[in-house]
Amino acid sequence: MAQSNVLAAPEPAFGSVAAARWLRRLERGLGLVCALLLVALLGVVITAVILRYGFGGGFLGSDELAIWLHVALVAAGAPLAVNSALAMRLDVFTRLLPARGQGAAQILADAFVVLGGLVLVSGGAEIAALLGGVSPMLGLPEWIRFAVLGAGGALTVLAVLLQRLAAGRGVPIFASAGLAAIVYAGAGNLQVATALPPSLVLGLIALAGLVVAAPLPYALLAAAYLAIPFGSTMPEPAMVASVVSGLSKFLLLAIPFFLLAGGLLTASGVAGQLVRFAAALVGHKRAGLAQTTLLTSVLFSGASGSSVANAAFGASTFQPELVKHGYPPAQAGAIIASTSVLDNVIPPSIAFLILAAATNLSVGKLLVGGFVAGTVMAVALAIAIHWTARSGGTAPPSSGAEKWRAGVAAIPAFGLGFIVVAGIRLGIVTTTEAAALAALYTLALGLFGRLGVASLYGAFRQAGAEAAAIGLLIGTAAPFAFLLAVDDISGMVASLAALFGGGAIAVMLFSNVLLLVVGLVLDIGAAILLFGPLLMPLAIAAGIDPIHFGVILVVNLMIGGLTPPVGMLVYVVSGVTRLPAGALFRAILPYLAALIASLALLSAGAVVASAFLSAR
After folding, report:
1. Could you report how far apart the first and last alpha carbons of the chain are, in Å?
2. Which of 378, 159, 141, 148 is nearest to 278 (CA)?
3. Do the Cβ atoms of 479 and 201 come closer than 8 Å?
4. Is 365 left (phi over 0), alpha (psi -120 to 50) or beta?
5. How much is the pTM?
6. What phi, psi does 134 have (nearest 5°)?
7. What would the DSSP string read from start to end of 339-386?
8. Confidence band (pLDDT; 50, 70, 90) for 571?
9. How confident is the model over 274-294, as pLDDT tens digits?
């Protein structure tokens, strides 16, 4: 018999099939838990809103119960995010390494994850054992919150173990676990004499974790533990307590609700009505389809509050149409990525929520500032698109009746923006309550649009997992922020800024340059949490209005979503369209220049306003 030339498929590694099966079970179970926790969280907040505003009463302990549910959501969703696009990995350096170097980098990255998980498990167990008493509102033992987060750390380690075993990387993952165990056991017994402040050591170790593509939250946790031998005053229980404290802010509950509202808006088809309305308004103009993409991003900003969500939506919706109408694929992707920046500037904005939680600024005033900044950025992008996007035909102008019909069809989506912005700005409801009402509103739209159970479950699961990833980052940044305060890093930054001069122009220039550099390598959430509290006192001391400065800070860092090597929005578009990220980074340069010009204009306006106020 003739021998076949077809090579037999390689046998799966020992245990990989079983590991893949258990991994699927774990992910399905945790996905269900995330969805149910988000349903419960929404139910608690909506019930409290109905009782407070409808019956003049209250739901005793509702705020505390919602916060506890949020901590549980983060713990359950963290394992789902550790090896996904939500993990916030910086893999631009590891991709340049040869195969053997990439394998070594993954061992180190997984060691960071395992070490961070061990910190959550050990610190959570220790503080749970030490902590007594019960919650005065809920009557539940206080240790539960910390134990739940520790359980999340254990499940994260299990998820990584199963993922690597399923991929046939059993030896490397056990090497990572062994390395993490050795470092964990040895670090507690070491003392290193150094002149460097512990917070700087933490930052350098976390940066090393980023270089080897470790997820940022676990790089921060592992670095916080490894800073102990260098003089850190924060033991493991204090780290976990700091993480839980960072998560235990009622304002942060708005994040999962806004993510849910955006997901349901897309799933229900209402987002498509925004596209048709935008096309009716500007589709006939020069580069009309590209301008439609921009206007849709402006309109969609009032719904999702997430630039990543808009980038994914635009890449799947507009990229094929732009290419079909003659736009080069890279230019089409660049337009989509650059217009997605607006979602975290035009309200509602998750970035503004994070900034408000970190600096205690007024959310309502930040939202108003976001409208102004978003308008300036949109005009700058429209001009850039007008002069660069010359390809493609233009649609015939829509009649008045067609515009009217498209506008009427889009009213449900506009109702969402009204609930959020008007409710918050007029002081009718809190930010979290407005976000919950927005989520309930889009849920009603989905039910009216006859969304199936599978679609609803998918929206809740995805929103829960995304919110958990963002929440974990916020929580794990808290120990770093604490050490920065202890080491008076803000004073060092102020001294550095003094070299530029202490006036408003010097501080604004220094801050913008620093933030543009930071935006090259840090996710916007982490950058806000770490640099917002450091730079805000400088701006106030220089006479710059803190709201103006906060808006500029967010605008500046959102531009970082388009710049290499991280460029999160570029990578989202690249992942959906399968276009090389390098080609997108080159094509995005004209739109990046337009956004930087709008940043300069907004900064100049803030400086002029500060001079005017100081002269009064």
Report:
1. 98
2. 378
3. no
4. alpha
5. 0.79
6. -130, 160
7. HHGGGGTSSS-HHHHHHHHHH---HHHHHHHHHHHHHHHHHHHHHHHH
8. confident
9. 667 766 766 556 677 777 778
Q: What is the pLDDT of residue 108?
A: 95
| Burial of 372: CB neighbours in 10 Å, binned 0-12, 13-18, 19+ | middle
Q: What is the DSSP string of 528-595?
A: HHHHHHHHHHHHHHTT--HHHHHHHHHHHHHHGGGSTTT-HHHHHHHHHH---HHHHHHHTHHHHHHH
Helix (H, G, I), strand (E, B) or coil at 141: strand
Phi, psi (rounded to 5 degrees) for 501: 110, 160
User: What 8-state DSSP symbol labels residue 189?
Assistant: T
In the predicted model, is pLDDT for residue 343 greater than 70? yes
Angle at CA 240, nearest 5°, toward 238 and 246? Answer: 100
- And the tokens for 293? 């993409």
SS3 at position 134: strand
DSSP 207-218: HHHHHTT--HHH
Task: List, in sequence order, every residue forming a beta bridge with 134; answer none if it has no partner.
Answer: 141
CA distance 327 to 389: 7
Helix (H) or strand (E) holding 491: helix 489-498
Residue type for position 134: V
Nearest to 303 by CA among 340, 277, 271, 273: 271
In whole angstroms, give the CA distance from residue 577 to residue 586. Answer: 16
- Digit-coded pLDDT (tens) for 504-550: 888 899 899 989 988 886 777 778 888 888 889 888 888 899 999 99
CA 552 distance to own-chain centroid: 18
In the predicted model, what is the mean pLDDT of residues 453-480?
87
> Shortest CA distance to 137 belongs to which of 74, 192, 61, 49?
61
CA distances from 18 to 22, 78, 168, 323, 450 (A): 6, 22, 11, 43, 38
For residues 326-348, give the mean pLDDT.
Answer: 87
**What pLDDT is attached to residue 9?**
40
Residue 346: partners with Cβ closer than 8 Å, 6 or more residues away: 298, 301, 302, 370, 371, 374
Cis omega before residue 412 (within 30°)? no
User: How long, in residues, is the chain?
Assistant: 616
In angstroms and rounded to an integer, the radius of gyration of the C-alpha atoms of the chain is 25
How far apart CA 492 and CA 483 sit, in angstroms, is 14
Residue type, 406: A
Tell me if 573 sits within 8 A of 584, measured CB to CB. Answer: yes
CA 383 vs. chain centroid, Å, equals 28
Q: How far is CA 413 from the centre of its chain?
A: 23
CB 207, CB 197: distance < 8 Å: no
DSSP output for 379-432: HHHHHHHHHH---S--PPPPPHHHHHHHHHHTHHHHHHHIIIIIHHHTTSS-HH
